[in-house]
Amino acid sequence: MGFGFRKSFKIAPGVRLNVGSKSVGVSAGVKGLRYSVNSRTGSRVTASIPNTGIYYSTTGGRSRKTPAYNRQREIQARQKEINRLNELEQAALSVDAYENTIERIHSIHKEADDPVNWIKIRSCNPPFKKNEGQIGEQEHAALEKLHHYKPNLMTKLLKQQNKEIETLQKEVFEARKKDEAEYHSWERDVKIASKVIDGDIDAYFQVIQEFNPLDDLTEFGSGFEFSAEHPKIVEIEFDVHSDKVVPKEQLSLTKTGKLSVKHMTKSKYFDIQQDYVCSCVLRIARDMFALLPLDTVYIHATDTIMDTAIGYPRKITILSVKIDKRALNKLNFNHIDCSDSMQNFLHNMKFKKTTGFGEVEKLKIDY
């Protein structure tokens, strides 16, 4: 079943993961797992090109769920043209980007992955009955085109029949390769689905790597370590890096449209920091429950502080929480206060409005 000793892997800040074909045992041309799984279950689709690290959207592709995340793309596009803007336009864009950062911090928990139906994936029929000698749809269509080929008069006059037939034969070969890739994709999906359902922890980690559900958090600067030794429980250590995420200055526009920059008060900074950490915790839990057949996740948020006793930075745990799936699913994520929502779960957190987070002990895993 894949447990009995502890297994773990890390996702570094700013790194977009994409597992290569060797790790999933598939050949070139096979669609990324997220694309393949979502297309089989009718969910949203984000495609990854294996071995390239390239992600792209397709029809019904992965879409963000909050206005803040959707507006970020527009702002990023405008920022590329900032040199062409006048002073007032640049000021307005700076304020827009600042406000969008705050909005996204408060929206992180809403951007959860859609649930994956591994039972449905495991029971999916193959694209064609290869073991019975059947060929795929694309090869069948290409062969039909070849068999019904009739050269026109001009082709005969120019003696191009052989060249056109050769082109059609190449199309048959390429179609066969695409069908083979689709078949291997189905084999891979069924194999992974079976392992996930059986509680194989290595398969869990593979799914997390392939789906990369927390990609926007790594862009914020967060890192993650996933650990497990029981198929119903996963432990995640989450590096907050709040100093890189939460703005230290407030941006606004004056009555004349010029940029006003003020130092953010400590109480406001710590309030945003707490919301950010708690929103991330909820998001991490939601993604884990959406992707894997878990009952419980333990999440430990860590941050680096300057320890004045030794004069060096020190990594501490600032929030440790045990989240049960049933309790989490009862929450209305559109209206909760993320910081207040921690009351629904067993957790350790010390927070003061004037000093922010304090160090706490990690919760021990209750198997």
From TrEMBL:
InterPro entries, per database record: DUF4236
Domain DUF4236 span(s) in chain numbering: 3-57
Highest taxon of source: Bacteria
Protein's name in the database: DUF4236 domain-containing protein
